[in-house]
Amino acid sequence: MNHVFQVALPLPLLQHFDYLPPSGWQGPPPPVGARVRVPFGPRQLVGVICGHRSASGPIAKLRQAHAVLDQGSLFSEELWHSLHWAARYWQHPLGEVLAAALPAAVRDAGDAAAARGDFALRSLASGDPRLRVDSAPWQLLQSLQSGARSWASVRAQFPNAATALRRLEQLQVVERVVLDASPRLARIQGPPLNSDQQVAVAAVLAALGRFGALLLEGVTGSGKTEVYLGAIEPVLARGGQALVLVPEIGLTPQLLSRFRERLAAPVLTLHSALADGERARVWQRVRRGEPLVLVGTRSAVFAPFARLELIVIDEEHDASFKQHEGFRYHARDLALVRAKRLEIPVVMGSATPALESLHNAATGRYLRLLLPERAGFAKPPAVALIDLRRQRLREGLTELVTTAIGEHLARGEQVLVFRNRRGFAPVLQCRDCGWHAECDRCDRPYTYHRKRERLVCHLCARERPAPRHCPVCGETTTPLGIGTERLEEVLGQRFAGVPVVRVDRDSTRTVGSFERLLAQAQSGAPCILVGTQMLAKGHDLPNITLAVIVDADQGLYGMDFRAGERMAQLIVQVAGRAGRGHKNGRVLIQTHYPEHPTFSHLLTGGYRNFADHELVLRQALLFPPFSAMALLRAEAMEEAPLHAFFAAARLHLPTDTTLQCIGPMPASQPRRAGAHRVQLILQCAERRTLQAALSGLVPTLYAMPESKRVRWSLDVDPQSLD
């Protein structure tokens, strides 16, 4: 009888792979969830053991694993089952799902037991007869006799420190001591909670110890963070852990600062900008079970908590919680699945909740908590629409807006100017012959970046020098349209002497640049902030009294059925930056369509009024949340393979009339990086029916010869139809 490991590998393949134990392997089989290094073709890969079986027949074709890397599973029982659920629900290979849950330093065969971490080693004995004198474990143990040493210093001295540590831990002659290296500020007392905040905190605390989904719907500036803190403090006091998910790295520094000055426990962070070693250190500390708070972006939902008791999802509506490449999971939905298995509550906060969340609250799946008023003395800003059809524009701004900016600056206040398009101008054109600079791989105009004198395609990232003269007729080229770079230049000239701070992806590429830019505004001195949606989320800058939305028409007539929802959320979030302190706020919205229903709903009844009308429309059209949807995308350099792929795929779809197929049709961006892009929408009234259809379709897609000639993906619950 031969023992066989069943291994999930980080490959875009659905099946598991069988391997024999490593040469000389003795003892019981390694547990499910342990890593193993195996040969795969000419390569070596690190996979995860998903099961075992006994092979009584010929096994000559099976290859041996090279090494078992762990003595125990890297996944708790809850996380293991949650990841399996995620693989099934989002129809993705389990090997890649498991790999996504591990930091790169561990995933790539690093020592998980001694992942480069912020801990120290302390000896429990002066020696052990089972250790050979002068061996690496013996030398390491001797070095600890004079006192505890940090793991970093041990690694620097001993080349084989990880192997030596494993041996000493097997013999139980050393122990780890946690080092708290997270930044800490002096603990301060928070402001008193108002009655609505007290009710919300009480509801969360009442839910501790059982599963509950709580939707904290609070207007911008209503003090949702104070509710989070009020709920987290008791969790830490009883030795538990808390996870706080935020949509973007830019929100992390300010939130970390507030948490660290208020909580008497480590507050760690986890996001893509961290080095691999730091991510492994955080992963290891969370896994040890010490009381702490982890603040992170969507990938933090995979963290291997040992004592997780509360999950908070800030700005729960944000599309950044959805992964748009590879394993297309949604962090909010996976957090809910983990919470249900752990029997703990989830708090989802937003001033503009996703329509799915509002629908779940209306049907009783979520408990709705309201914060209808701004905290403290702050009042809602006054909002006014500016009809661009009756105004003369100067560099994208009306005279009314320019005058208002000057008035607020003269009073020593700050102004936010929002334009969700980076670069200097969206188009570089010749006004003589009509030529314009276009990316020939995407069939869309290049964006002109004047500071670098470059043309950049914001779809495929292709760049080229910006021509000063038209390549067709030789006349001077002209930038058309307004981007954040152009607004920065224009406002800097118009209000000389006042700092203009531009915050977009171009100005925040380097480490720490985002924090440095915001520090100018946090000082409270008069300034103008110009930026994209990076500025619209969660930042508390109390001296901003005027918010200007340069062009609110983007998204009002988009092809995506979510376009109106996204635009309404963005408008409300930008408006919410104004008047958060003691001074009154004002919002000016420039638009060519002031009579559009989105504006009328928002101005007459706020976001909730808009959402109620939008949900009625969604229900009439049977769009989510009143149906389940999946998007099958494919791209190829030629169109013929795409036609063949979708024709074959449709043959394997069930003929059930409850499953609606829309397409195949060109994507909203039909070409990207030279590839043609086509998509097929699959829609069904019942989620269970859609999942059953996908479970039958996906294995066929992997096996079809037509799939080898295209690059295809399946997006369950897509947040965008692009």
Structural description of this entry:
The chain has 722 residues and is α/β, with parallel strands linked by helices. The strands form nine sheets. Strands 11-12-10-13-14-9-15 form a seven-stranded parallel sheet, with helices on both faces. Strands 16-30-29-19-28-27 form a six-stranded parallel sheet, with helices on both faces. Strands 2-1-4-3-5 form a five-stranded antiparallel sheet. It is globular, with a radius of gyration of 28 Å. The relative contact order is 0.08.
Could you name the key traits of this structure?
single chain; 722 residues; alpha/beta; 7-stranded parallel β-sheet; 6-stranded parallel β-sheet; 19 helices; 31% helix; globular
Strand content: 15-25%
Q: For the CA atoms, what is the radius of gyration?
A: 28 Å
Tell me the number of strands.
34
**How far is it from the N-terminal to the C-terminal residue, by CA?**
53 Å
Number of helices: 19
| Strand arrangement, major sheet | 11-12-10-13-14-9-15
What is the overall pLDDT average? 89
Query: What percent of the residues sit in helical stretches (DSSP H or I)?
Result: 25-40%
List segments where confidence is low: pLDDT < 50 over at least 5 consecutive residues. Answer: none
By secondary-structure content and strand pairing, the structural class works out as alpha/beta
The major β-sheet equals:
7 strands, parallel
State the shape. globular
